[in-house]
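Re: that backbone. Tokens:
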């Protein structure tokens, strides 16, 4: 844009600040409806008619909008004072740079946002009480429409999954060594949080066999994307692992549902018990206790600049099988 700070702003320059849909992006593109990685669902700012005059209230509305989005993304903006009716509306320094900063933050999933709240368990699905083989759970998170789903992730929202062991597989309900190693594996997994452009793992340790954490909402399709496989590192249980996959019900921009699948696979035999050898040896060392998969949602609040909160509309348990 050909302008100099301090010059009287022209209608087309103001309209570019407001409505540009290509780089450098205008406010409406990254803060309004937007598309793909842009858009937060905020009310659009009106442009000025060709040859029209930019008035004080219009300029102040744009500056307020910029500050509101910056408050949510926690970006630092250039300090500017409001103008009054009758003032000459001069271009302020660094408007384009500030708009570019905000556009980049939104495109990156608003990773600096802190106006977020994480729910308690939305869905928890448990395995049978003593099992070996695999335990697979699918949970879905549904949004009112495709735009709301995009805005949720663009504003910093996340879909989270955790695994836990809530029972013991040993004879008489006691914990086996295998049970304890599953507990350690789930602690190492921690919470898998699926964000806009990437996923995160809060735990550490064990063997990271498949690392798909670079995948987020905008990377998903209608087939399952492998987010992570974490494998037990301790012998003789190195055949045990936990998988997390995620998919959408349509392409980004049309999708309204994310489904997260967790699969715990027990591929580790335990031969510490043999027939006749019952002294001090658990008779069912190969069995696992009750395992559970839990979904929580980190939704977006309006505490730091957005006009309204952005959250899912519902969650559900799609499938739960133990084999």
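Recovered sequence:
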């Amino acid at each position: 844009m050909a302008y100099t700070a301090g010059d009287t702003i022209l209608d087309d320059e103001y309209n570019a600040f407001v409505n540009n849909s290509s780089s450098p992006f205008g406010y409406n593109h990254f803060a309004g409806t937007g598309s793909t990685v842009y858009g937060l669902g905020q009310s659009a700012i009106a442009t000025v008619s060709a040859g029209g005059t930019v008035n004080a209230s219009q300029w102040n509305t744009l500056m307020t909008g910029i500050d509101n989005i910056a408050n949510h993304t926690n970006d630092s903006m250039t300090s500017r004072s409001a103008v009054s009716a009758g003032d000459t509306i001069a271009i302020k320094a660094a408007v384009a740079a500030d708009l570019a900063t905000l556009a980049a933050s939104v495109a990156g999933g608003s990773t600096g946002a802190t106006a977020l709240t994480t729910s308690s368990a939305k869905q928890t699905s448990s395995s049978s009480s003593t099992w070996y083989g695999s335990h697979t759970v699918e949970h879905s998170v549904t949004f009112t429409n495709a735009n709301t789903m995009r805005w949720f992730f663009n504003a910093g929202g996340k879909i989270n999954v955790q695994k836990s062991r809530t029972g013991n597989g040993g004879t008489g309900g006691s914990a086996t060594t295998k049970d304890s190693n599953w507990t350690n594996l789930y602690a190492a997994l921690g919470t898998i949080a699926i964000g806009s452009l990437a996923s995160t793992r809060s735990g550490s340790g064990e063997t990271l066999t498949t690392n798909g954490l670079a995948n987020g909402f905008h990377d998903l399709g209608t087939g399952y994307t492998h987010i992570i496989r974490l494998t037990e590192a301790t012998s003789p249980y190195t055949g045990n692992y936990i998988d997390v996959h995620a998919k959408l019900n349509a392409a980004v921009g049309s999708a309204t549902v994310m489904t997260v699948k967790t699969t715990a696979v027990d591929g580790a035999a335990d031969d510490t018990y043999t027939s006749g050898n019952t002294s001090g040896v658990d008779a069912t060392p190969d069995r696992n206790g009750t395992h559970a998969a839990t979904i929580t949602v980190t939704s977006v609040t309006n505490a730091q600049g957005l006009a309204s909160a952005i959250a899912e509309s519902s969650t559900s348990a799609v499938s739960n099988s133990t084999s």
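Residues 11-107 form one domain. The chain has six helices and twelve strands.
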